[in-house]
């Protein structure tokens, strides 16, 4: 990709991201090799990655939306119970708190509620 600081990606080009990172309060997609692209510059049409990590809940956990607000029901349940193993699809930092993404990716559990297996 060249120099990460000055690389230009052409409009309409597809890029692969291996995660997200918040830098100075701005969300970026990691492109690898220390290169990032501002999330606001991406159209959001992403193929859903099937790469998941299995985590175990260390205590009862509520589910949150992409704004960090607790939702009333997730798959018919008010909360996920302690000891449940779930698959997560990456992390996101919302208002300084780390969350793990559930499928579909606009629902999250707090990072403090899980242990990675």
General description of the model:
The protein is an all-beta fold and 117 residues long. The chain has no helices and ten strands. The protein has strands at residues 20-23, 26-32, 35-38, 53-57, 64-65, 85-88, 91-94, 97-102, 107-110, 114-116. The chain starts with 19 loop residues before the first strand and ends with a strand. The chain is elongated and about 45 Å long. A hairpin with a 2-residue loop joins strand 1 and strand 2 (26-32). It has a four-stranded antiparallel beta sheet with strand order 5-9-8-7, with no helix packed on it. A three-stranded antiparallel beta sheet has the order 1-2-3, with no helix packed on it. It folds into two domains: 1-42, no CATH class; 53-116, SH3 type barrels (Roll), CATH 2.30.30.
Number of alpha- plus pi-helical segments: 0
Which regions have little confidence, pLDDT < 50, spanning 5+ residues?
none
For the record, the count of structural domains works out to 2
Q: Compute the CA-based radius of gyration.
A: 16 Å
Strand proportion: 35-45%
CATH class annotation of the largest domain: Mainly Beta
| Structural class assignment | mainly beta
The CATH architecture term of the largest domain is Roll
**Shape annotation:** elongated
Could you please say which CATH topology of the largest domain applies here? Answer: SH3 type barrels
* Spatial order of the strands forming the largest sheet: 5-9-8-7
Please state the average pLDDT score. Answer: 80
Helical proportion?
under 10%
How far is it from the N-terminal to the C-terminal residue, by CA?
34 Å
* Order of secondary-structure elements: EEEEEEEEEE
């Amino acid at each position: 990709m060249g120099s990460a600081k000055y690389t230009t990606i052409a409009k309409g080009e597809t890029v692969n991201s291996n995660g997200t990172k918040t830098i100075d309060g701005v969300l970026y997609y990691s492109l690898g090799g220390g290169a990032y692209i501002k999330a606001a510059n991406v159209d959001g049409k992403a193929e859903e990655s099937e790469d998941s990590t299995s985590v175990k809940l260390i205590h009862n956990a509520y589910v949150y939306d992409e704004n960090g607000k607790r939702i009333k029901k997730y798959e018919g349940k008010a909360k996920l119970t302690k000891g449940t193993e779930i698959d997560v699809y990456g992390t996101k930092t919302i208002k300084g708190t780390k969350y793990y993404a559930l499928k579909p990716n606009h629902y999250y559990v707090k990072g403090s509620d899980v242990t990675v297996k």
